[in-house]
Amino acid sequence: xxxxxxxxxxxEVDVQNVEEVLFYVGSNVDPKRDVTIVEGxxxxxxxxxxxxxxxxxxxxxxxxxxxxxGYQREWPQELQMSDEVIALVDEKWKKxxxxxxxxxxxxxxxxxxxxx
Length: 116
Hints:
This protein is an alpha+beta fold. It has two domains: 1-65, UbiD C-terminal domain-like (3-Layer(aba) Sandwich), CATH 3.40.1670; 76-116, no CATH class. 31% of the residues lie in helices and 16% in strands. Strands 1-3-2 form a three-stranded mixed β-sheet. It is flat and about 55 Å long. The model is unreliable at 103-116 (pLDDT under 50). It holds the Pfam family UbiD_C. One of its GO terms (molecular function) is 4-hydroxy-3-polyprenylbenzoate decarboxylase activity.
């Protein structure tokens, strides 16, 4: 099996959590700088490839950027919410209704929840 798309994230990101990975793709990726496309072998069963067994692959760098990589701006710190703020947001979402999934999302490590 050949991988067509590889996404690289920082070690703190839970790679098993698709929502979290996609959050960092949306937050940390500049398409011109962080996406690389190369041609090479692909699975012969890949119907999207222009030729049987030959196509393209994509690499996405969704990591924090460093000055040593040529990044010239200051990288922002991640949002940190206290347990009280998370509880308040959860309560409001319950009041609005239909957003049960959001409760799980606000409690993920994505927001660097402060430990008590």
